[in-house]
Amino acid sequence: MTTQTLTHEDCLDHRPDRPGECRGEVEYRLSPDRQDFKAFPRCEAHWEQRLESAGRTLELLSDTRPAWFDEGYAGERWEEDE
Ligand SMILES: [Zn+2]
């Protein structure tokens, strides 16, 4: 692996119209919720955001059935007496 200097323009989440969002070193980083072990260049600020969203994704995936799952079996009837 050759050493190269990455700039904020190399950050995967860099927006030319919002240049102030990139902060810190830009490095190739592995996303924890990816299975293919591909690394993408990201600055520290965007990497932290990415980690947070990855944490939320893992939480959602590991979630059990939602609390409303059984409500359809509460014994309610839709028929109306005439
Ligand atoms: Zn960035």
3D structure, described in words:
With 82 residues, the protein is α+β, with helices and mostly antiparallel strands. 23% of the residues lie in helices and 10% in strands. It is built from 1 helix and 2 strands. Strand 1 (27-30) and strand 2 (39-42) form a beta hairpin. The protein is elongated, with a radius of gyration of 22 Å. The structure holds zinc ion. Zinc ion binds next to helix 1. Zinc ion (ZN) binds at residues 8, 11, 13-14, 21-22, 42-43, 45-46.
Sum this structure up briefly.
Helix content is 23%, strand content 10%. The protein is an alpha+beta fold.
Topology:
Blueprint: E1 27-30, E2 39-42, H1 44-62
Antiparallel strand pairs: 1-2
The structure holds zinc ion.
Zinc ion (ZN) is lined by residues 8, 11, 13-14, 21-22, 42-43, 45-46.
